[in-house]
C-alpha cells in the first residue's frame, strides 16, 4: 500500500520505527556492503582501537534510512536522495528508533522531502534528509478469463 501523495502535508510525522541493533545486524550489514574494517566485526580489535564494541557502518545506516522511508511511502516510492550525518555509534544491544517529518512537497515533480533521525540511548546516531518521488498510480483494467 502506498501513501496518498495528495494527503501528505508539510509537518506530518512518520511513525517511529524501533530497530534492534544486534551483533548479527552490524556484522551482516558490514559484510553485505563489503566493509571489512575490523571495528565492524571484531570486538577485541574494536576495543583496542578505542571503541567500546563493534559498531554499525555508514552504509548500513544509509540503508536503514532507505528502508524507513520506503516502508512509509510504499512500493511505488523511488528514493532520489539521502543525505545523512553520523553522530553517536550504534552498538550491539541498543535500539535505534527512526523518526521522520515531512519538510516539503513539490506537486509538479511529485517529490517529498523528509527530515530523518535515528536515535539510540546515546543520542542521534544519524540525522539528515531524504527525498522520495511518488509516481502517479496507474489503474490497470481488470482482466477476466
Name its key features.
alpha+beta, Thiol Ester Dehydrase, Chain A, five-stranded antiparallel beta sheet, 3 helices
Structure notes:
By secondary structure, the protein is α+β, with helices and mostly antiparallel strands. It has a domain at 5-21 and 65-133: Hotdog Thioesterase (Thiol Ester Dehydrase, Chain A), CATH 3.10.129.10. Helix content is 22%, strand content 36%. It has a five-stranded antiparallel beta sheet with strand order 1-3-4-5-2. A hairpin with a 4-residue loop joins β3 and β4 (111-120). 23% of the residues are buried. The model has no long low-confidence stretch (mean pLDDT 93).
In short:
The chain has a 5-stranded antiparallel beta sheet with strand order 1-3-4-5-2.
Number of continuous helical runs:
3
- Termini Cα gap: 26 Å
Shape: elongated
- Percent range for β-strand residues: 35-45%
What is the radius of gyration? Answer: 18 Å
Total strands? 5
Name of the CATH first level of the domain at 5-21 and 65-133: Alpha Beta
User: Biggest sheet, strands in spatial order?
Assistant: 1-3-4-5-2
Task: Annotate the secondary structure layout.
Blueprint: E1 13-21, H1 23-32, H2 43-48, H3 58-73, E2 78-86, E3 94-106, E4 111-120, E5 123-133
Antiparallel strand pairs: 1-3, 2-5, 3-4, 4-5
